[in-house]
Amino acid sequence: MKVTEHLENSKKTIFSFEILPPLKGQNIQSIFDNIDSLMEFKPPFIDVTYHREEYVYKELDNGLLKKQVVKKRPGTVGICAAIQNKYHVDAVPHILCGGFTKEDTENFLIDLDFLGIDNVMALRGDAVKTETYFKPEKEGHHYASELVTQIQELNQGVYLDEEIQNTSETDFCVGVAGYPEKHMEAPSLDSDIHFLKKKIANGASYIVTQMFYDNQKYFEFVEKCRAEGITIPIIPGLKPIATKKQLNLLPHRFHVDIPDTLIKEVIKCKDNKEVREVGIEWCVNQSKELQQAGVPILHYYSMGKSDNIHAIAAQIF
């Protein structure tokens, strides 16, 4: 079932979450262990992130450096298939511009279609660690809006090889990202919303926001989007703080502001166990306010750990 259909069919705020593929060398049981405890809250779908390749340089015996491509978290498609088979809920794989040619994208989508996966999250993706700015593949997409276009063309039976006849149409529901505090590369929130509108015009059906810690940022973002004629669902994404290190990491990496009140509470904590409790309490309060405002769904970034997400959901759902 499509994400939009789940939202239309629900009469109350529903629960969903996002998981990371395990590091290479680990088995899928680590994923199941995290999902199992959250199934009591009846998520209609689970997002599975995609992690692109990284480049590492290894020194050879002759002193020269050899560039190697490493993918530390493979398995997105296999995990999605396993989730749908084991839990009978919809899996939403992320698909990126980065690391994909258009041909790679088409083949990826064909695999998903054959597996009966109805939804995809279309993202540009970040630059690899060795690059300052995002660099697409030679035959890849520069922007998420272009990726959305290719997905919608496949939905219409339009393939890259124009000589293919009697093509079948896919039927993907496409989600895209939204940034209540603007994307880190955008000059302004208004310009960011301008490009968000382009993704929607090209066929996106719903938006999932970047994490935020001040609900007012989300409410203002939604208001701005509606004023610009954006009518599709805007799903709030939430991530509880769990370590002191995240006070510096999250603003730097994700371009989000952390309210002074939350910062002061985290700083007062003696250890990360206390930080975790502060993060849970803050996220519970965020969730309750958003729920009272009538959001269709609350989406949590679990980052491979479910214990704090379970503690939050137990107080909300």
Structure notes:
- This protein has one domain: Alpha-Beta Barrel (TIM Barrel).
- Strands 1-2-5-6-7-8-9-10 form an 8-stranded parallel β-barrel, surrounded by 5 helices. Strands 3-4 form a two-stranded antiparallel ribbon.
- Strand 7, helix 6 (189-201) and strand 8 form a beta-alpha-beta unit.
- By secondary structure, the chain is of the alpha/beta class.
- The chain has helices at 3-9, 29-36, 76-87, 102-114, 144-155, 189-201, 215-227, 246-254, 260-268, 272-292, 307-316; strands at residues 14-19, 45-48, 54-59, 65-70, 90-96, 119-123, 173-178, 206-211, 234-238, 297-301.
- The chain is built from 11 helices and 10 strands.
- CATH-derived topology: TIM Barrel
Cα-atom radius of gyration: 20 Å
SSE succession = HEHEEEHEHEHEHEHEHHHEH
User: Which percent band covers the strand fraction?
Assistant: 15-25%
Strand order of the largest sheet: 1-2-5-6-7-8-9-10
Specify the overall morphology. Answer: globular
CATH architecture name: Alpha-Beta Barrel
Mean pLDDT: 93
CATH class value:
Alpha Beta
What does the largest sheet look like?
8 strands, parallel, barrel
| Class by alpha and beta content | alpha/beta
Distance between the termini: 22 Å
Regions with little confidence, pLDDT below 50 for 5+ residues: none
**Count of DSSP strands:** 10
Helix fraction bin: 40-55%
Query: Can you count the helices?
Result: 11
Domain unit count: 1
